[in-house]
UniProtKB/TrEMBL annotation:
<feature type="domain" description="ABC transmembrane type-1">
    <location>
        <begin position="75"/>
        <end position="275"/>
    </location>
</feature>
<dbReference type="Pfam" id="PF00528">
    <property type="entry name" value="BPD_transp_1"/>
</dbReference>
<keyword id="KW-0813">Transport</keyword>
<comment type="similarity">
    <text>Belongs to the binding-protein-dependent transport system permease family.</text>
</comment>
<feature type="transmembrane region" description="Helical">
    <location>
        <begin position="80"/>
        <end position="100"/>
    </location>
</feature>
<keyword id="KW-1133">Transmembrane helix</keyword>
<dbReference type="InterPro" id="IPR000515">
    <property type="entry name" value="MetI-like"/>
</dbReference>
<dbReference type="InterPro" id="IPR035906">
    <property type="entry name" value="MetI-like_sf"/>
</dbReference>
<feature type="transmembrane region" description="Helical">
    <location>
        <begin position="257"/>
        <end position="276"/>
    </location>
</feature>
<keyword id="KW-0812">Transmembrane</keyword>
<feature type="transmembrane region" description="Helical">
    <location>
        <begin position="183"/>
        <end position="205"/>
    </location>
</feature>
<feature type="transmembrane region" description="Helical">
    <location>
        <begin position="144"/>
        <end position="162"/>
    </location>
</feature>
<keyword id="KW-1003">Cell membrane</keyword>
<keyword id="KW-0472">Membrane</keyword>
<protein>
    <submittedName>
        <fullName>Carbohydrate ABC transporter permease</fullName>
    </submittedName>
</protein>
<feature type="transmembrane region" description="Helical">
    <location>
        <begin position="112"/>
        <end position="132"/>
    </location>
</feature>
<feature type="transmembrane region" description="Helical">
    <location>
        <begin position="12"/>
        <end position="35"/>
    </location>
</feature>
Length: 291
């Protein structure tokens, strides 16, 4: 007979919650270590020693990172790609998905078939690289934006969500003389704000974490994205690849510089997510049910 507490929790629930708590701690510990090392004062930092909390707090690593030209350039590049890419993603994805909901649109079936085909099959790295090269986009930020304007999964989910909207609203707007564009901008977009918030987060995180495409399409170190720069700092043996305007790198340990760069790369998403979390959850649920 299983033990049942006053709150209705069984022995299995206690064991399950305990295991989940342990797994959560295992996942959180690396972040705590990165956070602690990044804020540890260089004078008390000891290599290969685990820091749960800094013995002495300091912003030296962050001051050095933020004074470097390499990090500032990478931050500007990533911010541009994220902001412009996310806006274009939303425009293309929602407008194309809205068009695919119209059964009277010429070529709708063929276009929808192409979308589903790309969901199953991919051209691969070499054809994509050749395409980007022939378009003259190498060493350009647009090499990371144009090829990723939308994707099949996003189109299908957005299309499903738009089809769940009451068709009577569009019919009423058209009776009042509104055009298809007017219906889309004045009726569909306001009703799609939860989905827009959800996909804004999806697209923004994807662009902010751009690594592989930036690695193969951009060879100019001045145009590196933040993730490529962080990889260079964390994995490459020479952490002095980040150049700055100050000479404090002799005083700041390389490990604290690495950890500070990781924290700065994660910070924007961690700050933005809580504000979009409510709309994110609502948008995902709305797109999963039709009717």
């Amino acid at each position: 007979m299983s033990f049942v507490s006053r709150k209705g929790l069984t022995l299995f629930d206690y064991v399950n919650y305990t295991l989940l708590a342990l797994i959560s701690l295992i996942c959180v510990f690396p972040f705590i270590y990165v956070f602690s090392v990044s804020f540890t004062d260089p004078q008390v930092y000891v290599p290969l020693e685990f820091y749960l909390f800094p013995e002495k707090w300091s912003l030296s690593a962050y001051k050095y990172i933020l004074s470097t030209n390499s990090f500032i350039n990478a931050l500007k590049s990533t911010t541009f790609i994220t902001v412009v890419g996310t806006i274009l993603n939303l425009i293309v994805s929602f407008s194309l998905a809205y068009a695919l909901t119209k059964k009277t649109m010429p070529g709708r079936g063929a276009m929808l078939g192409c979308v589903i085909f790309t969901l199953v099959f991919s051209a691969g790295i070499v054809p994509n690289y050749i395409l980007v090269k022939e378009l003259g986009l190498l060493n350009s930020y647009w090499a990371l934006i144009w090829p990723a304007l939308t994707n099949a999964w996003s189109l299908i989910v957005i299309k499903s969500f738009l089809e769940s909207l009451p068709p009577e609203l569009e019919e009423s707007a058209k009776i009042d003389g509104s055009s298809d564009l007017g219906v889309f901008l004045r009726i569909v977009i306001p009703l799609s704000l939860p989905a827009i918030a959800a996909f804004t987060l999806f697209f923004a995180v994807s662009h902010w974490n751009t690594y592989f495409n930036a690695l193969i399409y951009i060879s100019d170190s001045k145009k590196w994205t933040l993730q490529v720069l962080v990889k260079s700092l964390v994995i490459d043996s020479d952490a002095t690849g980040i150049s700055g305007s100050s000479g404090d790198d002799r005083m700041v340990p390389q490990e604290t510089i690495r950890m500070a760069s990781i924290m700065l790369a994660m910070a924007p998403i961690l700050v933005i997510y809580p504000f979009l979390q409510k709309h994110f959850a609502k948008g995902v649920m709305l797109g999963s049910v039709k009717g």
